[in-house]
Design brief:
Elements: E1 8-14, H1 18-26, H2 28-34, E2 49-55, E3 60-71, E4 75-82, E5 89-98, E6 101-109, H3 123-143
Antiparallel strand pairs: 1-6, 2-3, 3-4, 4-5, 5-6
Amino acid sequence: MNDSSAPVVVEQSFDASTELVWKAITEREHMVQWFFENILEFRAEPGFETQFDIDTGSRVFRHLWKITEVIPKQKIVYDWRYEGFTGQGKVTFEVFEEAEGSKLRVTNEGIESFPNDIPEFTRESCEDGWTYLLQTSLKQYLDG
């Protein structure tokens, strides 16, 4: 596997139960507090699909998600695409119990399948985005 096809993996430990972390990543009322506030509907069920727009300031990206796997309180997997663009990613959220709370690991695969001339689709943008979402936004929400 070359560097361009290696998945982006970001982890964060929390002083929160695995149950609370699971709710934060699978229940819409929690997700909109730290993830994407534009999510109109979400169900942690295989086959569930949703879409929502994110405005980056220079363009609007319609996110298209389809849930492909759920192991309650442990793992949820999405297919992740953008309307009007080639490419398909897979994002896996895994929750682990730790002695002092829990850990969340996000693995984002398929980044190399998106157009490489769009700044928001670069590996660096993906790494920065997941790092911010887990290590700043979700951490602050759970510490809240």
